[in-house]
């Protein structure tokens, strides 16, 4: 039984990237304590990695999208559309609010648009830090964690634990793509738990994604669009995905290049 259970756990982690103790306990019909023992044994064997509340693929098995396309390369893609999304998103922020900015090139541009504003910004993005570090109008909270230099981000248990102590008015979340079923995706396994923690800390979740990411690709589901309150995107987005978002109650803000925020 244990061998079969371990095999099922490994299949689940390989297919989903990250899985919780509660999910495994329910799917395998065993107690959470049994799952924790299994995860400990599999972690010691090097075939998975224990993370807070569950397990993930170990680092040596992770596909590293950031190495293939580092931050500077991604930042050059679709710059005009990212900028109009960033400006529209910044216009949603009210003075005095506490907002969380996700990792990514669009949120870096959003941070630039918030310069000089009396707001509090919470982030695990070193790119956002670079935009706001010298701005005395902005109160900046940098989350701790493991530094991922290729994508200028901070991730890991320290990041997630810090976010559990916070509550923000709005979280601005990036994505590698939204599929036709309304799944918000990402391609970097180690960053997904931090994204989910940002979502959990927010009263309102704003997805910022230029239209070229609707549809888009990714290896892991971060959340469903039904868990998003607002989508800010551009006119190049797939109309069917926009219709699905509206049907699920998401406020959809579609912008065109050259349009004022």
From TrEMBL:
PROSITE patterns membership: HTH_DEOR_1, HTH_DEOR_2
Top-level taxonomic group: Bacteria
Q: Which UniProt keywords apply?
A: DNA-binding, Repressor, Transcription, Transcription regulation
A Pfam family it matches: DeoRC
For whether the record's keyword set contains Phosphoprotein, the answer is no
Ranges for domain HTH deoR-type come to: 2-57
The terms under GO molecular function for this entry are: DNA binding; DNA-binding transcription factor activity
- What is the protein name for this chain? Lactose phosphotransferase system repressor
Cite the source lineage: Bacteria, Bacillati, Actinomycetota, Actinomycetes, Nakamurellales
């Amino acid at each position: 039984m244990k061998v079969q259970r371990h095999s099922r756990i490994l299949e689940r982690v390989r297919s989903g990237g990250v899985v919780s103790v509660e999910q495994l306990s329910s799917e395998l019909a065993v107690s959470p304590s049994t799952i924790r023992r299994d995860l400990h044994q599999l972690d010691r064997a090097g075939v998975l990695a224990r993370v807070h509340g569950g397990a993930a693929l170990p680092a040596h098995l992770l596909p590293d999208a950031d190495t293939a396309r580092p931050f500077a390369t991604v930042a050059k893609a679709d710059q005009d559309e990212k900028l109009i999304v960033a400006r529209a998103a910044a216009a949603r922020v009210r003075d005095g609010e506490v907002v969380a900015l996700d990792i990514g090139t669009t949120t870096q541009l959003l941070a630039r648009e918030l310069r000089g504003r009396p707001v509090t910004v919470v982030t695990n993005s070193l790119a956002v830090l670079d935009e706001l570090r010298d701005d005395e109008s902005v109160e900046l909270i940098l989350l701790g964690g493991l530094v991922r230099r290729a994508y200028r981000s901070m991730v890991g248990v320290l990041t997630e634990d810090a976010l559990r102590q916070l509550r923000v008015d709005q979280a601005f979340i990036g994505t590698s793509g939204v599929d036709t079923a309304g799944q918000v995706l990402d391609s970097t396994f180690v960053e997904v738990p931090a994204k989910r923690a940002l979502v959990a800390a927010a009263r309102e979740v704003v997805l910022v994604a230029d239209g070229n990411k609707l549809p888009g690709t990714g290896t892991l589901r971060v959340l469903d669009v039904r868990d998003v309150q607002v989508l800010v995107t551009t006119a190049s987005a797939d109309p069917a995905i926009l219709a699905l978002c509206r049907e699920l109650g998401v406020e959809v803000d579609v912008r065109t290049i050259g349009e004022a925020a």
